[in-house]
Amino acid sequence: MTFPNPLDVREATASRQGSDRAAPSAKSPVVVEARKLSLVYPTADKPVTALSEVDLTIARGDFVSLIGPSGCGKTTLLRVIADLERPTSGQIAIEGMTPEQARLKRLYGYVFQAPALYPWRTVERNVMLPLEIMGIARAERQARAREQLERVGLSGFERKFPWQLSGGMQQRVSIARALALQPDLLLMDEPFGALDEITRDHLNLHLTQLWRATGKTCVFVTHSIAEAVFLSTRIVVMSPRPGRILDVIDCNSLPRERTLDIRESPEFAAIAHRVREGLKEGHSYDD
Amino acid sequence: MSDLTTDPYRTSLRTAADWGLVAIALPTLAALALPVGVRNGAVLGWFGGTMAPLFLIGVVLAVVAGASAPKRVWGAWAELAGVALAWLLPLHLLNEGLDLSAGWGLWLFLAAATLLLWRVMGVLAGVPGWTRSVIVPGLFGLGLLVGWEVLVRGFQVPAILLPPPSRIAAALAANAPVLWDDFRQTVLTSVLRGYVMGCGAGFLVAILADRVPFLARGLLPLGNLASAIPVVGIAPIMVMWFGFDWQSKAAVIVVMTFFPMLINTLAGLGNSERIQLDLMRSYAAGYGSTLVKLRLPNALPFLFNGLKINSTLALIGAIVAEFFGTPVVGMGFRISTEVARMNLDIVWATIAVAALTGSGLYGALALLERVTTAWHPSMRGR
Ligand SMILES: Nc1ncnc2c1ncn2[C@@H]1O[C@H](COP(=O)(O)OP(=O)(O)OP(=O)(O)O)[C@@H](O)[C@H]1O
Ligand SMILES: [Mg+2]
């Protein structure tokens, strides 16, 4: 597997389109604002409280990771932001709009926990799908799809069908598909969960470069403490039954420009330690 | 067939002797002691003056060649030649004027040849590509035809009960112009129009019912009701409503095909996974683009299922409906009038045309399905 040099990609991205860069002056500094957000799933036996009184503010340009044990409501929170789920109570605003308005304006790109590729479309046509729906011209669609596939290291696989690819490659296609939309807000649900360590490192490096170059706001779900600390400006530690936020950890002690070796630094270790303590606290609540 | 590669010295008992062949050879040896037929009241054995010994030698040579072939598949082809030769023997004996009905030696021999064919098919069915998908089913059908021919002629079944295939083929050729007119009336006019209308209506109403939930709830129970109505019940009514010509046949077909298409389309439209739908929702895709870009492609296997079921239903519907009134042409009309005149050869010829048409339609749809849903897990790698 080969990946293009991240620096080349960053330059290409920076010079490609002015509109892709966030223009903070024109827009409000807060992208996601949740107040006392609760969500209860009505199930057959007893209702499940997936989110309980969640307060969260995500500023423009933030990279926020959601971490917590399985079933603590990370996916649910992401789905509420994306207007795929309606909260039972509380308020949520995306760029000052309701989630529905934000969705209709196609403000976000969503990378699902599973690749969710359409098996009758080739890899390239899968990436072009959102662009077709937006009514973008064919030539531009193709150019954007090629560019994003190259970014995730899948040049040369355009004509393959998803089921001819490995699980990790499929997930990279789904990332390319979300990036092709060029959204200001990127919602990612364990996008690298299925990948091996080395590929994951590469894509993490890529993602942080992309984030810094484009000024996108990212909300990222992960189970890996190292990944969360490496990527984030802030880490939200969640705990289950009921799903709630235990701790929000700032990562400002780390430089904004991340390289793989910051993982050896004492600041990195300190933040990772705090995340681990938070997760332990969530688990002890169970016992 | 991997014995040769795993055991190059043929040391195991399994490879030293081909027990399958031995099991086939034993009844063959027993058959040699029994008669092959009767001529002018005299019972004839294998060496009673016919060419039977030559056939026997040919078959034995083929089997020996098959057993010593360097590749199991080549061996299978040699054995197939032996099987073909074995089944030609009764035809030769019939030409010689023998009565085969008491020729138990011959029948035992043919039973052994059939076992050999079984072995051959087992090998050929494992060869990917054309061999498996076309030749094996073709050989199977051919085998059935030859068996039918030999058994019917050998046991002198009266043609009025069951004619041999050769006689049906002759009737087909002799009555070709009449049969073509019937085909045009029944298939090209009634079936095609009724099928397109019935399937089209079922599809469109399903799309409507998908948007208007109460329609689906109301129509689905009706579908069960409609599928329980016998054709013979609605056909005379449709003839009264729409007259003798193709319109009444098309109406019967519409009644028969509408609900299967509706039910299959509805099932197909409900076949998309939640995550696939969520993806569309996240793109703010409307009803139309979700339908065209996600739900219809996902429904394709179901649509083809409905279309395939309906292709046979439509043919049956048209033929049966013609029993209740038609202009003096059509396959159903032909069957009903010629049966009454005891003119059974042409009846069988018409049945053959109907069977070929039905499998042709079905095959064409299956081919189309394979092309358009190659991505579906059930079609991949085939
Ligand atoms: N559609 C649903 N209906 C009912 N309950 C649900 C539904 N979706 C999620 N839940 C419940 O809500 C809780 C939170 O689920 P969620 O998917 O948000 O967890 P998660 O943190 O993403 O877990 P994981 O790390 O395993 O993906 C779980 O207890 C789950 O059982
Ligand atoms: Mg989840």
From TrEMBL, chain B:
Where does the UniProt entry say this protein principally localizes? membrane
InterPro entries in the record, alphabetically?
MetI-like, MetI-like_sf
* Localization per record: Cell membrane
Bilayer-crossing residues are: 19-38, 44-67, 74-94, 106-127, 134-155, 192-210, 222-244, 250-271, 313-334, 346-368
**Protein topology in the membrane:** Multi-pass membrane protein
Q: Which domain of life is it from?
A: Bacteria
Hydrolase as UniProt keyword: no
Limits of the ABC transmembrane type-1 domain: 201-369
- Per the record's keyword annotation, is Transmembrane included, yes or no? yes
Q: Which CDD domains match?
A: TM_PBP2
Q: Which UniProt keywords apply?
A: Cell membrane, Membrane, Transmembrane, Transmembrane helix, Transport
Q: By what name is this protein known?
A: ABC transporter permease subunit
Q: Which organism is it from?
A: Azospirillum melinis
